[in-house]
Write a sequence for this structure.
């Protein structure tokens, strides 16, 4: 646009003098616009240079979460309480979380989620139930000779830390469970573990077995307590662990695991090999379709294994023949199998299944309904 205006100006200087003043006014007008634009750009640059320095800006205050602020105070109180008590008054393992100490730091709430840490457990409204659950877990570990005590670690070895995992199980009856879990992510391949793979039952197998209820199958549910603690660790897989929170020992600081423990990378594989060997010894055989579906040699008994959850199914007829099985024979078969499993492992007899792997099961005459309402409600919360 400026170039178009400059041509008439040059022409008017040589031939048409009256137009010179008009063209000059246009030039002045354009020059004014250019000067305004340049001054605006200059003002913007000056405004940027006048911004305060980074160091002069007010810093945002960063506060740690409450549980970390209170952790140091809790730790000091627990340590001081363990110092005051004389050694002769302590059992071989003393539980340091007393009710008085927990009540002084607790904040009761109407509805509480499952605690994530040991500190949250002893400060929760249900602290007595969680303390009892931890004691039961520890006694089970001692009874099964899961570990042995070590004063010092061998040269070049490090002890792996552990933690408590808390869980409420509402169905079929409300239970408080505390499980001691080792931090397996600290293990080193080739030193602490070798193979880790272990199969689990297919969800299609479980759904198929549940659908057989309509055809007269009788189902019975069982749960293996501390399943991963049953298999022994090989001599090549030597694992050392620190004492868990809440338990102190005046003699030793470390534990050498004799048996598998939850959290170990090789724990699922060791448990699967253990339970597979036992089921085979009492007449079961793994299915070619699913290695966790076991068929008994009697021709009418099946068992589905999903880690430590078992589902027993007894058919009203033999697979290889058309002969039927009476209700008394079905109940006798279930009772015998429950006794065999309970004699080998520490089991929980849950009876008729109402919930399996988070799936709610409702059984009525010639009808079965499965849903996950509880899981959906938990997710929506």
């Amino acid at each position: 646009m400026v170039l178009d205006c400059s041509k008439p100006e040059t022409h008017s200087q040589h031939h048409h003098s009256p137009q010179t003043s008009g063209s000059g006014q246009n030039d002045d007008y354009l020059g004014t616009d250019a000067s305004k634009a340049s001054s605006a750009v200059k003002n913007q640059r000056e405004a940027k240079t006048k911004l305060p320095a980074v160091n002069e800006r007010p810093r945002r205050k960063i506060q740690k979460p409450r549980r970390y602020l209170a952790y140091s105070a809790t730790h000091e109180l627990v340590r001081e309480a363990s110092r005051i008590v004389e050694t002769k008054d302590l059992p071989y393992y003393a539980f340091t979380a007393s009710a008085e100490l927990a009540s002084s730091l607790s904040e009761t709430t109407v509805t509480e989620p499952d605690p994530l840490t040991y500190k949250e457990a002893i400060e929760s409204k249900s602290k007595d139930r969680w303390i009892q659950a931890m004691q039961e877990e520890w006694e089970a570990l001692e009874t099964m000779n899961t570990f042995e005590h070590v004063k010092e670690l061998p040269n070049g070895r490090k002890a792996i830390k552990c933690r408590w995992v808390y869980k409420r199980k509402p169905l079929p009856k409300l239970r408080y469970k505390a499980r001691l879990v080792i931090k397996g992510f600290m293990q080193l391949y080739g030193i602490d573990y070798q193979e880790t793979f272990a199969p689990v039952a297919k969800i299609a197998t479980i759904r198929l077995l549940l659908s057989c209820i309509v055809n007269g199958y009788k189902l019975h549910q069982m749960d293996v307590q501390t399943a991963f603690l049953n298999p022994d660790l090989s001599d090549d897989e030597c694992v050392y662990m620190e004492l868990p929170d809440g338990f102190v020992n005046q003699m030793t600081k470390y534990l050498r695991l004799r048996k598998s423990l939850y959290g170990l990378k090789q724990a699922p594989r060791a448990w699967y090999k253990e339970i597979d060997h036992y089921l085979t010894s009492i007449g079961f055989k793994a299915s070619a379709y699913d290695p966790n579906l076991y068929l008994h040699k009697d021709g009418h008994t099946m068992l589905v294994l999903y880690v430590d959850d078992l589902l027993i199914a007894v058919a009203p007829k033999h697979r290889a023949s058309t002969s039927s099985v009476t209700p008394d024979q079905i109940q006798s078969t279930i009772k015998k199998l429950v006794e065999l499993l309970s004699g080998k492992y520490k089991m929980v007899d849950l009876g008729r299944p109402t919930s399996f792997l988070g799936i709610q099961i409702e059984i009525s005459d010639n009808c079965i309904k499965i849903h996950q309402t509880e899981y959906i409600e938990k997710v929506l919360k």
